[in-house]
Each structure stands twice: as C-alpha cells, then as structure tokens.
Amino acid sequence: MATGVLGAGALGLSCALRLAQAGEPVVVLEKEAVPGGLAAGFRVGDTYLERFYHHLFRTDQTIVALIQELGLGDALYWGRPTTSVLRDGRFYPFDSALAVLRFRPLPPLARLRLGAAVAYLKLVRDYRRLPAEPAGRWLRRRMGEQAYAVVWEPLLRGKFGAYAEQIALPWFWARIHCRTPELGYLRGGFHQLYTRLAEAICARGGRVELEREVRAIVREPDGRLRVDTTAGSYYFDRLAVTLPTRLFLRLAQGLPAAYRARWEAGPVHLGAHCLVLALDRPLLPAIYWLNINDPGLPFLAVVEHTNFLPASDYGGRHLLYLGNYLPMDHELFRWDDARVLAEFLPHLRKLNPAFEPGWVREHWVWKAPYAQPVVTCDYLRQLPPHDTPWPGVYLANMAHVYPQDRGQNYSIRLGERLARRMLETR
Prior knowledge:
five-stranded parallel sheet, 426 residues, globular, seven-stranded mixed sheet, 12 helices, 21 strands, FAD/NAD(P)-binding domain, 25% strand, protoporphyrinogen ix oxidase, domain 3, alpha/beta
C-alpha cells in the first residue's frame, strides 16, 4: 500500500518516519529545495541557520526525544539567554519573577498584579479550566488596564494586528504555561534534524523528493489518489496532507461541496517576514530576544541569535533577525531587499545609537505564507477533522496544534500521532 506525505516540514517528516519504521512504503513530496518547512535552514558560512528564528523550551520533550533517537543529542545546547522589552526607549529584562517585580514602566501595585496573574497561568494545568473569552479581556480584568496597555497590548497588536482583541485566552495561557526561561538550540542548525529525518526515512525504504510542488490532488475512479506536481504525477493508496487547510481545499479536485463550504473560511493565517542581518559586531547589550513595545518601529521582535549561540559558530558573524507577522497581502511581502533595508536599518539606531549601515556584512530576506494561525475564540470550530471525505486521505497541519499556535515540538508530536492513526486504520 503506497502512502504519500505532502510536505517535508516537522509534521510531515515525523509522520513519514514512523510510517516507514512500520514498514509502509512512503514517499514525501516537498516544494522547497530543502526539508524543514518553516524551520528550514540556509547556509551561513560553514553552517546553517533557520530562515525564521527557532529555539526549544525545556518542556519540548517530543523533539528532544527525536533528536536523541537520531543521534544528534551531542549537538543540543541549553542556555538561559536574556529576554527583554523595549519600552520608552529603554531595555527592561522580562524573563523572571524578579524581572517583573523590577519592571519600572509600571508602578509597584501593577507589577504585583501582573506577576500574580502570570503565576496563576503557570499553575493552571488544563487550559479548558479557563474562561471562554478573549485574552485581552481577561488580562485587563486580572492584571489591570495599565499592565495590559504597557506590556501585553503592544505585543498582541504587533503580532496579530486587527485581530488582537479576538485572540483566545488558551493561546495566551500556552505562551505562559508551556515556556521556560532556559532555551535549547541544535548547534549547527535544525537543518541537521530535518536532513537526518529524511535520511532515516530513505534508509527504511521510503523516499523524500524535494522541489516537487503539488498542483492538484485527484481521486481516481478506482480509488487511487493522483498527486500532480511540477515534476510529474504520483499515485498513492493513502495520503497524509500536511499543507494548510485552504491550500488543500484549493488543490483537491472533486471534494464534496458541503465539506469545502464548511471549512474554507478559516482559520485565518498571517505570513512571516524576516530580515536576517550578519553584522560585524553585536547590536544589543547581551539581549537575545527583544519584544518591541514602543510604537513606530517596523518590526515586532528583534532576535540577536549570537547573543545565545557564540558568533564563532558562524565565522564571527553577529546574526540578527528582524521579524514580522503580517496579512499575506501586505505590501512588505512585495518589496525588494533594497527597500526592506532602507526601511528597517535606520530604526536600529533606536536600539543602539552607534549603529551604522556599514556594520552590515550580509543580509537575507525570507517570506512564508500561512506561518501564523490567528487563534480566535471560535478557532476550534474552524478546524477540520483529520479524516476527510476521501477514504485514506488525512489532513493535519500547524493549525491543529491548539492551544499552541506553532512550534517544532508540537508539529512532531502531531505527526507521530497522525502516523499511529494511519497505521491503526490500514
């Protein structure tokens, strides 16, 4: 029974590995030239870096177990880099209870309320115990208007724009409850993990075929599934689709109209845009992650990767991400690199007055659609089931990791769960 997997991201590759280990003849089709999906890497000197910033948390046990299983455990590095907030032109650490209590943009009572609410979310073990309401409403009530306006509203608006007041409380809970101050990274890049996954699939008789963009999915009269790609057609008995739901509905020809009408409206996704800079010196004072809570900057987060990993890993380059999540029709996705640099670089002086454009030695601009699900209060009603109307065709994608919205760990966990489901029904 030939099985196809569409998409060679964390979800697709982990699903394919477990199927291959169970003896399934599996073929993975991926439109990009490298595996990894949103965690795909690009070469920087003699090593790899992710196109979009990635790290692990201590709670990410599924991916850690897979890294160990694939023999990459010695490359896994753990540290506690600094996370800070830019507020009123100053940097404030914001990654511990003590840092919250010292957060001077808020008066002491507001700091205590903020800290108490965060502690409460840390203690809640099941998000289903939380009220069914938007995060903003709950935060205002529990932390107060001032803490919300200074700390959380700028972050929600920076990330979700017009959807900020609709974001569900379980999403916010996941950001607080499941994350840890200690972070992990695979030295040499997560590219190693996805390369090793592809190799493990092939070693068990499967195939991972890159640069195969899917153009159509068709159910033949005899029940076989035909997948038309830019490199020809493939035939399968079963199919695991890890593409975004809207893309699946566009590609799958002949799905029942009622199914299409039920699921085509959502969930909404934003696109990701990252300018990555290689500087000849550090920009920030030992800060890894900087949330932008001041208005007027054209990016929502600054991640100085080499304030976590040493610049010596990258030939002395100091690597900086300037990231955004935006509607997929936003004009920024149409700008060329020169215009992006012209818009972004002057704002770096707000972070370091000494910055000069001459510090930039290399740059890369990366864009990806369907990178950030918008987790609203009616989100679960927008998620289609994994079983589709076509027998043997299963749909699972990043949107299904609720209440999480992203994360390699959760995609791998979902991929392994999907493989078990497929094996039980073969």
